[in-house]
Design goal:
The protein is an alpha+beta fold and 280 residues long. The protein is 39% helix and 28% strand. It has 8 helices and 10 strands. Strands 1, 2, 3, 4 and 5 form a 5-stranded antiparallel β-sheet that branches. A 5-stranded mixed β-sheet has the order 6-7-8-9-10. The longest helix is centred in the N-terminal third of the chain and has 23 residues. It is elongated. The N and C termini lie far apart (83 Å). The mean pLDDT is 88.
């Protein structure tokens, strides 16, 4: 058995929070002078964690590190390297300083192996590549309607009675995808707030607050039912969204914010209303 050492390279997007993602690995086995590095070749994984990453620059740095460390490893194998290598840190710190804000090495890990190449590939796949191709799939507004709410309206045979409608306002025209009219115009609009970043959630809430507020300039009486997917695991943010949207209500505009737990009750209420108030 041969003793080996390795370090994982972390990309630290925000030094203040210390949050990082694994982007590469270097393994050194002294007995056979095995030194290898491997780095991510795509930035999808990093982008999942940190919005606004300069993917092109990040990949450029990683390619440079991988090539430089592997060149050092080749020199060791061919015994061309005049400076002896006794630890993996001796190599890694020559390329990335320990106090670098964005690129940091993990503590040195150690193990025993018969086959350094196989161990290196296994560690790289487990620690770096395992989630590299995973993409975060978040539902669109249309998905929220089709996958979450539509079945409740189908159950009460209401979907076929709902039609798209554009409402003219003093300065614009706002379209809703599912509406029913008898007296007041009832508009059902699916919206997701299950978005990646809190600032994106707030921006969408502000956008819809502006649109809903504009409806006050319409000649029509409008009841807006927002069929929402709330932000995951953030009750304070969800409370902000609800308050902002509901505050757009006015004399001729009523805004309700619904979640899936409200869907069946709302469908029953609409069914009763439709049965007693034919569309006009």
């Amino acid at each position: 058995m041969k003793a080996y050492q390795y370090q994982v390279l972390h990309y630290v997007h925000d030094h203040l929070t210390g949050e990082f993602v694994n982007v590469g690995i270097v393994l050194f086995e002294p007995e056979t002078r095995f030194l290898r590095a491997a780095m991510l070749t795509r930035t999808q994984r990093v982008a999942q964690f940190f919005a606004g990453v300069d993917g092109r620059r990040l990949l450029s740095v990683l390619r440079h590190l991988e090539a430089a460390i592997n060149a050092r490893g080749q020199a060791l194998q061919e015994q061309l390297d005049l400076a002896p290598v006794t630890s993996v840190e001796q190599v890694t710190q020559a390329f990335v300083e320990a106090n670098d804000a964005a690129w940091q090495w993990s503590a040195v890990k150690r193990g025993l192996t018969l086959f350094p190449e196989s161990t290196f590939q296994g560690l790289f796949e487990r620690l770096v590549l395992r989630y590299a191709d995973v993409t975060v799939s978040r539902p669109s507004d249309e998905d929220v309607w089709k996958q979450t709410y539509k079945k409740y309206f189908d159950q009460y045979k209401l979907t076929a009675k709902l039609y798209p409608r554009t409402i003219a306002t003093a300065h614009d025209a706002i379209q809703f995808h599912q509406t029913y009219q008898n007296g007041a115009l009832h508009c059902y609009e699916a919206l997701t707030f299950d978005l990646e970043r809190p600032e994106t959630v707030k921006a969408k809430a502000y956008k819809w607050f502006g649109m809903l507020s504009e409806l006050r300039t319409s000649a029509e009486k409008v009841h807006i039912h927002l069929l929402t997917a709330p932000p995951a695991h953030d009750a304070e943010l969800w409370e902000f969204v609800q308050q902002k949207l509901k505050s757009a209500s006015g004399n001729n505009v009523q805004v309700d914010v619904l979640r899936e737990v409200d869907a069946e009750q709302e469908a029953r209420r609409l069914k009763h209303y439709v049965d007693n108030h034919p569309a006009t």
